Amino acid sequence: MAEKNERQPARVDFRPGRGGPMNARVNGEKPKAMLPTLARLFRYIGRSRIVVIAVVLLTVTVTILEIYGPKLQQQAIDTFSLVKNADGTSRLTVDFDLLVKKLITLVAINLAAGLISFASGRMGARLAQKTVYLMRRELFEKITRLPIGYTDTHKHGDIMSRMTNDVDNVSTAISQSLTTLISALLTLIGSLVMMLSYSWIMTVVAMVTIPLTVFVSSRLAKFMRKYYVANQVLLGRLNGQVEESVTGYRTVVAYGREDAEVGKFGGISSEYRKSSIKARVWGSVMGPVMNFLGNLQYVLIAATGGYLFLNGRLESVGAIQAMLQYSKHFTRPINMIANQYASVLTALAGAERLFEMLDSKEETDEGRLTVSPEDIRGDIEFKNVDFGYIPEKPVLKDLNLSIKAGQKIAIVGATGSGKTTVVNLLTRFYETDGGRITIDGYDITDLPIETLRNTIAIVLQDTVLFSDTIRNNIKYGKPDAGDEAVRAAAHTANADSFIDRLPDGYDTQLTESGGNLSAGQRQLLSISRAVLADPRILILDEATSSVDTRTEMHIQQAMVALMKNRTSLIIAHRLSTIRDADVIVVLRGGRIVESGSHEELLAAGGEYYSLYRNQFAGIAT
Asked: Which of 127, 198, 239, 490 is least surrounded, with the fewest CB atoms within 10 Å of its CB?
């Protein structure tokens, strides 16, 4: 089965439950235009201005409290002092009152910082969810306004990924990265100011290990990147293999390919296991390396502080402890920013994909005529219509077709001749490249799309049912219909016989795509839906292709009553279903080559005659 490389989240941790400071350098999807995307994302965030201000104020407050903590620790340590006695000995003295005050203040500050951090986290989560709620709602509304051509030319999995993975990445970045980056920047500045206030020499010493950290992490990132990239590729192949095997399980079983699929999965899984081991082994190097550099910084600061204190160039022992704490505060934001960098890049890349869809051209609706569906009679005319899904490969060429109200027109032809394209253009799923299509003399581009599509009911070859009750599926095109109308529609389509046999009848809950019904039963429900819609124009695109011969006969009988006084277009491969059509149109290569009644076309001995003979007599021409 073909492999699918599904897009995976880009963030990678080097150790279980932890992120490395060069996380972003190892793996991260980058946006194409960072600044415009960031600015547009901030416009969404800015819609919750009060929450944003609250998050920023709370984050600033927590950061100030945390920066002030080491200063209090220094003051608490400095309550201890050595006092020389008269005999030359020394004794330790403690200012207990001051010590207790400082400790109580320290506890109060830590408690307040914890509570404010909790509040900040809550507000950040609220901000993230409000923002992604707006984005997801706009995105879904956008999807409903996109032309059919968009969903035909974009992978459905990719569209789903934008609605889920990309939005979730944005949510994570807003709820975590926003406050983290603000806190990191303030902590970095505050710690640097406090360190300089104690000793510029110790500050320089504390920064010695930072370039070393960046250099080592960059080299490790460059070395390990290939393993993490390979992991994502293999994981995509693994997911694609599982998806295709599950989706095509009936085919796998029917052809006895279970062992082959297991073997294929095992091969990919084995590659992924080996690659993951290498990635984890090399990724685990980051922990010891960073610990070593952190300890090296600690030793250098402690040694320098001791030397300066002994030489009278540092005010107290507590100042050494404060410098050690501030050095941790200073290096921690660098690691925090590096850790969040990958998340931010991934979120911006996801936001860019969301904005790309939001900026996609919507289905045009220039119709300004005030015509209601009840006013439509059903005269249809195609005038010199040209169309191609790909510009250089036309499907319809100078098509001219006239259909009178109440006529039953059948369109036949070989696969690829343009039969379904006629329906796509009439319903404005696609726009013509040339020519025009009219209904009752009105150009369909002048009719509001809602009016046009409420005038038409269509039964497709691929039945579409929703995870809802049978009753609601039948009422989908006419939600205000009563139960009697629903039953009458099901009776007309000969669907009531199997519905009444179900334990819950019309309240039977359908699974995804109506999977708990047979193909024929699903088609009957689709026809019932069209019956209830009571359209002026009816389109049957291979409507009986999924039912057996006996069911087809029942449907044919129902269709005779349904198509009475309605303009009907029937697309069919089974020529037996269109014998009583008023006019049969034969398409070949996007052009009409024949038209007439069933008897007339057989007598002509042309294209239709060949199709008929091949289907019923098996005689090659």
From this structure: 239
